[in-house]
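User: quick one, fold this
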Amino acid sequence: MLERDNFTSIVKGAGILLIGLILSKILTYGYRVIIARYIGVEGYGIINIALSITSLAMIISLLGSHQGVERFVSYYMSKKNLSKVKGIILSGLKISILTSVFMLAIIFLFSEVISNNFFHNEKLIPILKIFSFGIPLFVISQILLATIRSLKKINYFVYIQNIGEGLIRLILTIILIYAGYGLFGVSIAYILTFLFSAIVAFIIIQKKITPLFNRKIKSKNMDKRILKFSLPLLISGILITLFAWTDNIMLGYFRPENVVGIYNTSLPTARLINTIPTAFAALFIPILSSLYAKKKINDIKLIYNNTTKWIFIITLPIIIPFIIFRREIIEILFGVEYIGGATSFGILTIGYFLGIFVTANIGVFNSLEKTRINLKCSFIVIILNIILNYILIQKYNLNGAAIATSISIITFSILTSIYTYKLLKIQPYRIQLIKPILIILLLIPLYFALSLIQFNDIIKIVIVFSIPGVLYILLLNITKVFDEEDLKLIELVKNRLKINK
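Assistant:
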């Protein structure tokens, strides 16, 4: 049987992180809405192209060391080896800072070449230069935040990254836009949030969690250990980042900036599907790493099975209203000038839903130190994504980019699931998931009936998410979708809530 403490940690931590992610999405959407509405479609497209380029530079700078820190800090803390814990953190910082300074110089010096020769827009030059200074700040914040996650202090992680970053970025953006700084203000606000995260994360680790940076704790050099683990993740991280931004980069190459701007209303909205998997995965990796250190393979299997089941059950009722009300959602959030992204939003919603198990599968690979599997799967998928984007964008415009991305995501999910089965004889596609699917199919007529409501658009959206959602939960209970382990989990949550009242 699964140890109660491990399962409770996942639920409690995932619950905290889910709330944080929801708040983060709200703040991020506030940020995006302000940019989209006040700097225009072209300006919004320029910002997203700059993000595409610098995001790749940031991942290269990290060298995968943040994932190494997350994995090994959890591992060595379970063995009470503080010298190695400190060594891992310092090695991660040292390696990634050196690389980030190099990448800053490359982006800054070649910003004109990139802007004029590839994207044919000189307005991109100063934005790229500003964004380049965020690279070192980003990598420092990511190493320190990975440390907090690995120590299972998810509440601090949520406060800093999910809430703090979003709030600071939103406030600074509003101030700088209204002060008349436009694109420059948006860019400056974006990079300053990384400075905020780095400073606060360091203070939290040192003052609230454990004083790892005290001289009394001697650090052991862990450069080789972290590089051996992280370098395969670097390549896969680059490939995954390319995968995430290929559609933007290739749209920017083949189409004007306004098309990139419209597409970047549908893409981040569809990515809301990943909120639930991300919430669970943040607890999933550290707990699996500590279990693997204790050789508790059966517990790893049980956690994986229950986690993927809950990810599926919670995410399923979101996709139907996303598809049916795609036009209303885009218009409410971004304005009527972005309504052209509604179809691509529907396509991407399907793709991201069918690929929701990728995060859990990658968590298994990282926890078991099978990082080369990430590399293999990422390489196959990025090649597929580039080919599909090249063909489909020219034929179907931004909808072609959405189709290419969706096919690639689904392929990634299937590949990683196959490798997960080879490693542990477990996989996420199980017969227990049929009941939730049948229940949601039965509710589809209700969604269409509710779409006829003539209320204000925002009120309508609230109604179509809440009423079918309540019925969905009731039907899950009636049809006994939850097994014995799930019921124990629910009881644990109820008891915790009673205690906390």
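User: anything notable?
Assistant: The chain has two domains: 4-429, 434-501.
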